[in-house]
Structure formats: C-alpha cells, structure tokens
Write a structure and sequence with these properties.
Blueprint lengths: L6 H14 L6 H13 L6 H14 L3 E5 L5 H9 L5 E6 L2 H13 L7 E5 L2 H4 L8 E6 L6 H11 E10 L15 H14 L4 E6 L5 E6 L1
Parallel strand pairs: 1-2, 1-4, 2-3, 4-5
Antiparallel strand pairs: 5-7, 6-7
Helix pairs in contact: 2-5, 3-4
C-alpha cells in the first residue's frame, strides 16, 4: 500500500495534531508522561485523555475501572472528569508503575479514597468485580487479552455505561487489511465484534491511536 502524500493527507495530519493538542496537559500530567517514558510503559495520547475526561463528566461516573494503570496519565484524565466522590479502580501487573501513578495522584491533590489501585493480572482481578456496578471501563493494556477484557467490561457496566478501548487502530495497522500479525488481527476482530454486538451502541474515534467506544444497552 502506497503512502498518501497528497495535500489532503497532509491537511488531515495537521487537523489530527491540532485536535490532539487542543487541551494542553498541565505539569502534573507531563511529569506522569515523563515517568512513563523512563519506565518504558505506553500511555494514552492527550486527545484520548480529553475524550475520557468528557465522557466521565457526562456520565457523572462515580465508579470507573481502568485496565492498565501505567503511570497514571489516563487515571488523572478520568479522575478530573469524575465527580468529587467518584472512585477509580485501576489494575496493573507492574507494581512499579502503580507506585509512579500514586506519586502523580498525590501531586495532583487526589484524595487517597478516590483511587483503588490493585496490583495483578486483570484476568485474575476483573472476575472479582461486581456485575453491572460501573459507569465506565477503560481497556488499555495487553492487546492480546483485549477480547477477554472487553467481555468482562461488558459484564461490569451498568445499562448506559460506556466501554472505552484505547489503541484500537494499533499504530494504524488495523485499517490496513494486509496487516495480519497477531496483535493487529486481535484488535481488528474486537472492533468487528463490538460493531455486531447487540449489547452495545458502538462508535470509533480517530483520537490518539484510535478509541473504540460502546454504550451498554
């Protein structure tokens, strides 16, 4: 597939960059992003963070689950959109990452009672969470496990709750049918599955590396 170098393509790239930078990140978020770079963990793009913050605010989300804490970048965006009594349950297999996230939460003035950081594999933790008790679930770690995580998320969401799957374009590989590596194939199939799932009303946003959304019916 030949790269599109037309003026229209350049304008699209400029528009995407403009959208990503529309809400600039403050020093707390930037430092959390720097910690992620030092620890070698991936984080959401600012455009995705802005969408998540808006969704959390629109839902008045008091109970949110995040799969993949990282250094707390997505966590901070979510917490800033949630009501002051909202609680974020965030799961990560890397304890060092969660320690860095807790530093970010403290720096942002987030009360400890507003976060529940659970170390461990999401596949072990998610089944212990309550059915239909959450307003929003963010899937953002371990793409090979996305099908399992999405199914668990749909179980956890209340009617009207929102599923958000980050990295749904998988570095622009999902839209290219010639890309058939394992990760790309799995992420592509997650999108197709949600599109055909009667339990959700889906949408696909090009923010960041792709944000796949589904409202639980």
């Amino acid at each position: 597939m030949t790269a599109d170098t037309s003026p229209r393509s350049s304008a699209k790239a400029a528009s995407w960059a403009y959208c990503e930078e529309f809400l600039p990140e403050d020093d707390v978020l930037l430092r959390a992003r720097e910690r992620a770079s030092e620890l070698g963990c991936s984080v959401i793009q600012p455009g995705v963070g802005a969408v998540l913050q808006t969704l959390a605010a629109a839902l008045r989300a008091r109970s949110v689950v995040e799969i993949g804490t990282g250094t707390g970048v997505a966590s901070l965006w979510l917490l800033r959109g949630m009501p002051s009594d909202g609680v974020l349950t965030t799961i990560d297999v890397e304890v060092e990452h969660q320690r860095a996230a807790k530093d970010a939460f403290a720096e942002a003035g987030i009360k400890p009672t507003r976060t529940r950081t659970i170390p461990g594999r999401a596949s072990d933790v998610l089944p212990r969470l309550t059915d239909g008790a959450y307003d929003l679930v963010l899937v953002g770690a371990d793409k090979l496990s996305y099908p399992e995580y999405v199914e668990q998320a749909l179980r956890l969401l209340r009617p009207g709750g929102v599923l958000a799957v980050d990295g749904a374009l998988s570095h622009d590989r999902v839209a290219d049918p010639t890309k058939r590596d394992e990760v790309t194939t799995i992420v592509r199939e997650v999108g197709r599955s949600l599109r055909a799932d009667d339990r959700v009303l889906p949408a696909f946003l090009p923010s960041g590396d792709g944000l796949l959304l589904g409202v639980r019916r």
